[in-house]
Amino acid sequence: MAGNGQEQNKRPDPDALLALAEKDRRGKLTIFLGAAPGVGKTYAMLQRARRLRDAGTDIIVGLVETHGRSETASLLEGLDILPRREIEYRGRVLHEFDLDAALARRPAVIIVDELAHSNPEGSLHPKRHQDIDDLLDAGIDVWTALNIQHVESLSDLVTQITGVTIRERVPDSVLSRADEMLLVDLPPAELIDRLKEGKVYLPESANRAVDRFFRIGNLTALRELALRRTADRVDDQIVDYLKQNAIEGPWASGERLIVCVGADPLSEIVVRAASRLASGLNAPWVAVHVERTDREQDDAVAMRQLEKVLRLAEELGGEVKRIAGNDYVTEILRFAAEEHATQIVIGSSPKQSWAFWRRGSLQDALTARASGLALHVVTSDKETVRRRKPFPRLDLASVRMNVLIGVATVAAASLVGEAIDRVIHLPNLSIIFLMGVLVAAIYGGLTSALLASGLSTLAYNFLFIEPRYTLTVAEPYEVFALVAYLGAAVLTGSLAARSREQAKAARSRAIAMQALYDFSRKLSGTANVEEVLWAAVTQLQSGLKKNVLLLLPVDGDLKTLAAWPPDTEPGVADLTAARWAHEKREHAGRGTGTLPNSHFHFRPLMSPHGVVGVCGVELAEDNLNPTDERMLTAILDQTAVAIDRARLSQESVDQAARLEGERYRDALLSSISHDLKTPLATITGAVSSLREFGDRMQPESRDDLLQSIEQESDRLSRFVANLLDMSRIESGALKFTHDWVDVADVVRTAVERARKYFPGRGIETGLASDLPLIEADSVLLGQVLFNLLDNAVKYGGTEPINVYARRDGEAVIISVTDLGKGIPPEELERVFEKFYRRGKSDGRAPGTGLGLSIARGFVEAMGGTIKAESPALKKRGTRITMRFPVKAPVRSDA
Amino acid sequence: MSLDRILVVDDEPQIQRFLKPALNAAGYEVVEAATGAEALKAVATAAPDVVILDLGLPDMDGKEVVAQLRGWSDIPIIILSARDRESEKIASLDLGADDYVEKPFGIGELTARIRTALRRKNKESAVATHFTIDGLDIDTQRRIVSREGAAIKLTPKEYDLLVLLSRHAGRVVTHKMLLTSVWGPAHGEDLHYLRVFIGQLRQKIERNPAEPVIIRTEPGVGYRFAESAN
């Protein structure tokens, strides 16, 4: 380190400061560490608590076991004690620590004894140290007590020393997160005295173990462990202090360990040893597992074992990495180089060595190829780690099949050999048997191949080697040939079988890949969240063969939005776990440290924009196998991103619709404002001009101004009337009188009015003589006709406008036709829309954009229909046609 | 002396219909244009003295006409606009239009704006160094501002603001224009500066700061310095 840039080293290590800041927000953890039960941890803790309480600190007792000892009980007096929670468990009532009450109470400091305690089934967390973690997260300081024997990394040692197996273990990471560690020490001799005086509480059942445990030798060794552990910690604190204050020193060892682990119990020992080694060196460490890509996945038992080992490594504070590769040694060395590892820890047992005989032991290979790396080999006597070799559960049917294939191929080869031998004498008939072995290997795998090798050697000997039809061999060289044949058969057979396995593995991987690929293609084609969810749920179900749930937040709470089978519903405990996973963005439920009694294993769906939901998988056992694990992770990643994308696209659609609406409103407003303001501007301008300059103007000009005032006022009043009509139609307040109307009369009146308004425009009428009366409102109908004429004048060019009325069966048809430019076909229906006008919002023929829509409103209210046609005549013009039904009028004389 | 020629650009025939006789009666010659393109052509060929421009034109945006005209002509431009086109109006002023009249308007208001614009055009070359309004004297040569002989102490920014406004007497000056020329281009949006300084300035120069007559507020647009009597 000294050789590196001085500047950098002088500055406080940001990581160290960050860790400090992180600690500031959390509560502080104080652990009272003892070598054995009875050294007085609880006593020390309570004494200290009383002092603190006297100083005015809000300190409460969350849980303390006095074990009926009066000394301890008297210390409890006067301290605030949190009531315990009663839990029914297997018919017994247990009094447990009440985490929720503690969180609600929020004291400054809380005492929770016995860190290594396991909670009964059905609690939020299986272990007390997890409860304590929650308290710390909530900013509450926690005091707790622990015996050294419960420390995970020391458990092997403790078992070795005392012969007692420790079941309740606390991960080393909990200890390393403690802010303060107090050693409560008592010399072993005194402890034994206390024990004899009955001052140490021990459960009845443990009596037998007591004698073995409380021996001077054991206690001395445990005390040493506790002392050493505390001393290590002091070391760590000094290093932290040096880092935080940028004091230079040889504090970092610069060492980095990697630990090679596999699916065997030996690996657990290796991991513990490595963790001790690493903490001694104050070095980070990584447990690495190499997954062989050329093999099919290991069996479920091995898988679980591997998970166990990896979880242990995590608990002990190591990092966990899985890498994939073919060549174990190459992969390890590459990984070591990437991680800048300085030391490699491997395990070795006599039992394991046979596995490596083919290419030499791992240890030898690493020694041969690693340079600049220290290699630790952890050995273990197999007595302590008797691996209950999981006998592979043989599928009886498949064994029978394999045997059958082996026997059948040899039988077939024998027959073929015999047949050939009858025809011609071949010196190398063993070739035929070799082919049989190959066939067995390809169709039946290794078992069949080996069986066929053996059988065919015997058959060959029996059938074709002189003396024939005996198993004796006459010529010595034949023996040699026979042995050579067996060797060749076993070799080719196993090679063929292996390539078959590889092909099978590759095929299953290809299928998995294809499934994922299909899934991602399916997702890319879906635009809404619901489709994404269903695609994901079906994909997960078909891939994992398990029940799955997808929960998304709806109005602040998680709802099951997709499930397979569709009626799957999470229980209350499951929902709690799901919410936990959602809030904390952690795995929860089955197979995790939180609510493991849930039936589902929950994972948050994380997208780049945060957590979008939770996926639950119903697990029958605690773990997913790596294949499923990989698939689950891949699918969930894709699903989260797809949900995110679907939501974004939905939002952008909504946004676009909103924008469109706004644009429409703007156009409408500017259109109305223009229509109101132009006549107003003309009137104001003309009036003020007349007042200001009237006397200087020619009489014609004055007259023209007055005329324009009159016309614009008219226009304004029509526009206002139209707006009122429109709002009457829209509000449903339109009332009209049913009357028997003479169509011809109405047309004539409307045309007269229009002629007055639009002098100089020709309007021609053609009215049939047999027009019946229709049931309508003559005023409204007149208004409609006027609007149509007004429209025709505006858009109809200069040629005369025609108005026709005729009878068509049981209807009367009235049409207004102009010879203007006409309307493009796609706009024929839109012209009846409110405020629709041809051209843009400004600078076009003056009009309200209401005329036709009012006309339609009126006509439909009177029971008629109205439509536009274009071109009307000679490829131009527009015709608006109204059609009113004719009902027989009630005759007064009938 | 020939009549001042006014180009009226508006696509509404009824507006043209009353403007022409009114402006004629007021002593101006009127040239009409109904589209932006016609307007640009008319400025080039008919040599008008003032342009009255409606912002809503069928072929192009009124702002665009202002921008194009300002590319090669310094002719005074008066905008006709409706109140709901506030932002376009301000943009046009910032682009170089001289003034605006809001529809509906009285002819008196329009002719007053035309007169101011013409005056600006005619004495463009000679910048007045001395200015008197409502008893307030501004002497830009000696940098002295006084009322009835008593000197008024102004900060440099207040003085700059006052002179800038007085040079545009009778015409509206937009917030942006004031801000960028007194405070610099980076402060074009810092309206609060302007409000504070105008307030201070009015306290010092107005007879009755509660009812200012020298610096008038044009709501949402800017300020207008009163036209002097001389």
Structural class of chain A: alpha/beta
Looking at the structure, the CATH topology of the largest domain in chain A is Rossmann fold
CATH superfamily of the largest domain in chain A: P-loop containing nucleotide triphosphate hydrolases
Q: Within the largest sheet of chain A, what's the order of strands?
A: 3-2-6-7-1-8
What is the fourth-level CATH superfamily of the largest domain in chain B?
Answer: Response regulator
SS-based class of chain B = alpha/beta
Number of strands of chain A: 25
Helical residues, percent of chain B: 40-55%
Number of domains of chain B: 2
Give the mean pLDDT of chain A.
Answer: 80
Which CATH top level class of the largest domain in chain B fits? Alpha Beta
Strand share of the residues of chain A?
15-25%
CATH class of the largest domain in chain A: Alpha Beta
Main beta-sheet strand count, sense and barrel state of chain A:
6 strands, parallel
Number of helices of chain B: 8
Q: What is the radius of gyration of chain B?
A: 18 Å
Could you write a compact summary of the structure shown?
Chain A is an alpha/beta fold.
